[in-house]
């Protein structure tokens, strides 16, 4: 065993936040940038204006001593986090009032959510609660309640799910059936002109709504409306839960927090038990339904409009997937170019950067490719959704099916990849990623609900599959689909296509890659549709028992192809001035497609698109594509513009300070406020002293 | 919208712990058992005797008011959990002393670890610390320290990793090189006959060792031994850190907890900074090395023995993977037969059981197959390891390479599948799985370190790959491998084999499935070995840069094949009396193999084992195999014998009580001890009242 003094001396300096020193390795990686980072950042945010707004929000958060994110957060109990965030919520209210109040709904959410550590207390009030009033209330109700919500004089939540009934959104768009199975009742008392709300069973307990437990004073409660013993289906009612002066719960209302969770520690997801709670008839949200003084029930307008509320959340979730994966990548990639492990470089004892291990690159580069792809696709979906909202006002529901198809599919595919990606990154940082100071544990656990809430991903893929199958049926009836379904017109051509792949170069060609993804999707769609068409089973059995795995797999393959198309479309059509920006995005598009094919290319062997030998070409192509991206990894990750003040990471900050701050935060953490922990003297020392 | 009264009335009753009622659905599933559950349970535990011992441990834990696990645990702060577990540690000491003391090392660990909620405080003392003394101490040191450890008069830890240096176990067995890069120094002071321990840099701070922060009074510290300015490599030293009377740290020692983490909340992973700490020369653990009074350094014996310590941990981790996955399955499967969602059954409005959705079955059945396979394989590895320990005492290291190969490979493949499996199960329970009361969040986060500690999984797969590549080289030199490498002798035959798969039935045949897995592994090994043999790159570049993804993929395929072989071997050779036990295990073996092939069968298309159409046959076969297992899911899961007292789950208990207890625990949880939370009056009411 020899001395390794030499290697110690030459080891590149890591960063120091305290001394404002940037790690040598990180600095060198930055110098490799071959493109206009600013231009890419602007397009990533959806335009210069949006980026400037975002930067403005960041500077507000960073410069405010109450709002500024802190590593102490990781070490707080739930109670402390919640109280801390009440304080911050108040501060956002103050700032919002003086600075952003010009357009409350649009501007408030982005400015804090861009930066807020933990789950923002007013989150539900400002999204679901406010949307419900706007979308489900009639003009009078909107005029009465919305201003109060805007002024934060009503803090509310969205009380739909029950202990026995999840976000049971069995939306068959042709036949809107919300909230099957909900058990809470709203019985009309004609005499007093009131509804009486009740939770008749344990399973009817409202369970899970955010801000229901402790924070919300109001709730939009979904309950089965019963008039004269007749059930008129589940309808939304406005309910005041707490006294405005004392904030104690009102009579007949029992509510509270549901307890500790995997993540979302600072959110008071709650339960609510109702016992003969009376509300005026006018508290029925009545844009689409009406109950008159005599108890006559009528439906007004098109119930499909209701669906837009839920869809908005899914569109936001799709955008959030890209953004969150970008945060994890920022932390992990910086760590991977500063942290070195094992002397495995020829001619030197200096350890190798994590990111210079092929296995590490194979984890990170695909995730970066997904981030850019998902971001641009989601921005396009957001535009489509806004168009839909406009159209619906004139009774045009033309975009509804497509927006439902995409928002369900994106939600399912993107959130799974994002969640798994954060976990991969966390694990790739070893112990440092397991430690809260990295920022990754909280990022992962707070992101976790995205795969299951607002429609479980498996159900969402099945929802997304519906329009695919419907389109196939329509084609058989002579329909010619366009847009993202355009490729359905040429299934025969696709399924007989030969890839002619003779080497890795053939798989670095974007046209070939697009074809490959189209063929894969076409094959899955065709075989699934065929099996379902020829099966003698009932529709229920086909969709839930016999072919549901086929449907999920098909929907995912289709969504990943569509995403690729939109991504290429963005690259081709966005007016980038710097040609290298386009080139880098194209390189990422290659990695995207190759990642997909490396995971699942059996369909291509089945159709004959791939032949013997192509598996090796595929792997070689990915190695080459990843090697091309490697020098641009740090610039491409930092183009996502995630500020230090947001990530609060002792290993992924912009200084490449991966040790000093970690140790400092550790030293200052809670358990170290006492030298000898409570319980040692009472329980452990007697053992040590042989006195037990 | 119609009334769904009818369906409400017919809905099967869920369970109630309070009223000792078992859910109707769960009861019916249990009745379907077609095999001798007890016989399977016994073999799962490695024999009747071990099962009885295990049950004995369970009853001790269940019946002791201090030791009994509680749902309160999920709602405790780190400080509370740690203090609570000090109390319980004391109680285990008392019970152990009176009941189990006959064989301390062997019996203590299994009896508490089988049942203990959170991470046991004495865990490191009794494993790594105790093992170090036994393995690294000379006879005199063992005689001096081991009895004290056994009596718990020395509580210690294993201080190896540093802030800048992970569990850097670059073990090249041919040339043992431990702990590359560690920076802590132990400088010999000849005059005083002492070593002086120092942490010369920030990165040399000992970081991560369990029980180092607050609990351990002693540590085995790894430090670079310097005598007369010469570096003699990293060696282990015994260090007292805390005063036995007061438990305050001794002069020159700064240590503490490293902070909050993703999981392991109750474990005090710590840091340690040493400043001129003097220890006697005799504190060098000197079974394999010696420094005499004059400072002369000598090496004694075979350093490979050291490796057995680390290997023992990996073998335990492999067994732990199966056991932990079994816990998650117990919770999730029970929930999936009681929880019903969506009216998707023909002829009834009663909602469908989660487990009657094909997508749900495709998640659960493979995980159950892995659980049984990993368990039986790990038990065999444990036997091999014990043989190795015996052999080594007589200087026979024959089994070392193989045991290293298997323990690294199992560790990497099994822990990844187990961790991902827990996560899949947690997500499949939707909101209920996200809530701590399910037991799943803690299970997942406390299991999480397994994929990264004791050798990161990527590195472990690369380690495991070494013996594969070495064996290939040896074959070229005329060597004929046996045992698990037997199939290497017939690569040519395997790679030209045709599967002759004409329908799903051909893929339900175990011989065909074994061939398929062998072909897949053979193809990957052959292509990787060939590419590496013909490459002109240096060994470093080949292993870390050019072909490391190939190596990882190859090692995994090989390990999964070997596991299948061992699993089949167990089924064939274990003297089961009930033929249905064998039949059920065979059904699970089919699911195991089909799951593997559905994930990755490209190699089979490449070799021609699979031909066009086989993808559909494969999926059909899996659907059939899973459908066969479906009625036995609950009996097969409950044969794993996971007691309610261990899982502490409000959704996965043996009563099928999935609602009542959940709500009760929620109501009693911490945040609900106050009606109006601190901060509401100060920060929120002023907003509500328009006073801000």
From TrEMBL, chains A, B:
Instruction: Give the CC-aspect GO terms.
Output: peroxisome
Q: Where in the cell is it found?
A: Peroxisome
Keywords on record: FAD, Fatty acid metabolism, Flavoprotein, Lipid metabolism, Oxidoreductase, Peroxisome
Pfam families assigned to the protein according to its UniProt record, in alphabetical order: ACOX, ACOX_C_alpha1, Acyl-CoA_ox_N
Q: Where does FAD bind?
A: 161, 210
Main location per the UniProt record: other
What InterPro entries does the entry give? ACOX_C_alpha1, Acyl-CoA_ox_N, Acyl-CoA_Oxase/DH_mid-dom_sf, Acyl-CoA_oxidase, Acyl-CoA_oxidase_C, AcylCo_DH-like_C, AcylCoA_DH/ox_N_sf, AcylCoA_DH/oxidase_NM_dom_sf
Q: Which Gene Ontology molecular-function terms are recorded? A: acyl-CoA oxidase activity; FAD binding; fatty acid binding
GO BP annotations of the record are: fatty acid beta-oxidation using acyl-CoA oxidase; lipid homeostasis
KW ATP-binding (keyword) present = no
Query: Cross-referenced SUPFAM superfamilies, in alphabetical order?
Result: Acyl-CoA dehydrogenase C-terminal domain-like, Acyl-CoA dehydrogenase NM domain-like
Q: Where is the Acyl-coenzyme A oxidase N-terminal domain?
A: 36-155
Active-site feature positions = 454 (proton acceptor)
Which cofactors are reported in the record for this sequence?
FAD
User: Which segments constitute the Acyl-CoA oxidase C-alpha1 domain?
Assistant: 307-469
Ranges for domain Acyl-CoA oxidase C-terminal come to 513-688
**Reactions mediated catalytically:** a 2,3-saturated acyl-CoA + O2 = a (2E)-enoyl-CoA + H2O2
* Source domain of life: Eukaryota
Kindly give the PANTHER family that the UniProt entry links to this protein.
Answer: ELECTRON TRANSPORT OXIDOREDUCTASE, PEROXISOMAL ACYL-COENZYME A OXIDASE 1
Q: Which family does it belong to?
A: Belongs to the acyl-CoA oxidase family.
Q: Specify the protein name.
A: Acyl-coenzyme A oxidase
């Amino acid at each position: 065993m020899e001395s390794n003094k030499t290697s110690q001396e030459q080891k590149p300096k890591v960063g120091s936040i305290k001394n404002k020193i940037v790690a040598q390795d990180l600095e060198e990686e930055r110098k490799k940038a071959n493109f206009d980072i600013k231009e890419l950042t602007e397009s990533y945010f959806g335009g210069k204006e949006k980026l400037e707004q975002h930067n403005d929000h960041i500077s507000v958060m960073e410069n405010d001593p109450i709002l500024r994110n802190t590593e102490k957060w990781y070490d707080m109990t739930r109670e402390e986090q919640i109280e801390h965030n009440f304080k911050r919520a108040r501060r956002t209210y103050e700032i919002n009032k003086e600075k952003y109040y010009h357009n409350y709904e649009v501007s408030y959410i982005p400015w804090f959510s861009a930066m807020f550590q933990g789950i923002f207390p007013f989150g539900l009030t400002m999204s679901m609660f406010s949307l419900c009033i706007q979308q489900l209330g009639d003009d009078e109700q909107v005029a009465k309640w919305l201003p109060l919500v805007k002024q934060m004089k009503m803090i509310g939540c969205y009380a739909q799910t029950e202990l026995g009934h999840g976000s049971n959104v069995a939306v068959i768009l042709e036949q809107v059936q919300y909230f099957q199975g909900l058990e809470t009742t709203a019985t009309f008392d004609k005499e007093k002109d009131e509804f009486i709300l009740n939770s008749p069973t344990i399973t009817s307990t409202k369970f899970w709504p955010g801000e229901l437990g402790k924070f919300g004073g109001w709730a939009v409660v979904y309950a089965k409306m019963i008039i004269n013993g007749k059930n008129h289906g589940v309808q939304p009612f406005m309910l005041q839960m707490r006294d405005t002066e004392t904030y104690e719960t009102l009579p007949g209302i029992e509510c509270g927090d549901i307890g500790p969770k995997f993540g979302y520690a600072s959110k008071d997801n709650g339960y609510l038990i109702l016992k003969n709670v009376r509300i005026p008839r006018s508290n029925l949200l009545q844009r689409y339904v009406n109950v008159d003084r005599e108890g006559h029930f009528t439906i007004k307008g098109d119930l499909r409009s209701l669906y837009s509320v839920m869809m908005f959340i899914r569109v936001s979730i799709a955008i959030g997937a890209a953004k969150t994966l970008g945060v994890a990548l920022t932390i992990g990639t910086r760590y991977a170019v500063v942290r070195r492990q094992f002397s495995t470089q020829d001619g030197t004892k200096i350890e190798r950067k994590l990111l210079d291990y092929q296995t590490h690159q194979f984890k990170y580069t695909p995730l970066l490719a997904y981030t850019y792809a998902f971001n641009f696709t989601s921005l396009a979906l957001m535009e489509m959704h806004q168009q839909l909202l406009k159209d619906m006002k004139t009774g045009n529901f033309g975009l509804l099916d497509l927006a439902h198809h995409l928002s369900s599919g994106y939600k399912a595919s993107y959130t799974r990849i994002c969640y798994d990606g954060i976990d991969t990154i966390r694990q790739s940082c070893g112990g440092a990623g397991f430690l809260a100071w990295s920022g990754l544990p909280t990022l992962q656990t707070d992101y976790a609900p995205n795969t299951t809430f607002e429609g479980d991903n498996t159900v969402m893929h099945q929802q997304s599959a519906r329009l695919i199958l419907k389109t196939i049926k329509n084609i058989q009836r002579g329909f010619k689909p366009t847009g993202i379904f355009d490729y359905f017109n040429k299934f025969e051509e696709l399924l007989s296509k030969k890839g002619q792949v003779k080497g890795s170069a053939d798989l670095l060609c974007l046209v070939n890659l697009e074809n490959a993804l189209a063929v894969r999707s076409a094959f899955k769609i065709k075989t699934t549709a065929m099996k379902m068409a020829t099966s003698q089973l009932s529709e229920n059995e086909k969709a839930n028992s016999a072919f549901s795995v086929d449907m999920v797999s098909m929907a995912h393959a289709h969504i990943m192809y569509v995403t690729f198309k939109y991504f290429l479309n963005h690259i081709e059509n966005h007016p980038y001035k710097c040609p290298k920006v386009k080139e880098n995005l194209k390189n990422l598009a290659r990695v995207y497609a190759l990642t997909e094919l490396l995971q699942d290319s059996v369909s291509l062997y089945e159709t004959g698109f791939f032949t013997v030998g192509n598996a090796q070409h595929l792997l070689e192509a990915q190695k080459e594509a990843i090697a091309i991206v490697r020098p641009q990894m740090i610039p491409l990750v930092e183009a996502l513009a995630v500020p230090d003040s947001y990530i609060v990471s002792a290993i992924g900050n912009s200084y490449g300070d991966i040790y000093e701050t970690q140790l400092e935060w550790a030293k200052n953490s809670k358990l170290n406020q006492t030298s000898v922990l409570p319980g040692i003297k009472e329980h452990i020392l007697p053992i040590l002293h042989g006195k037990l």
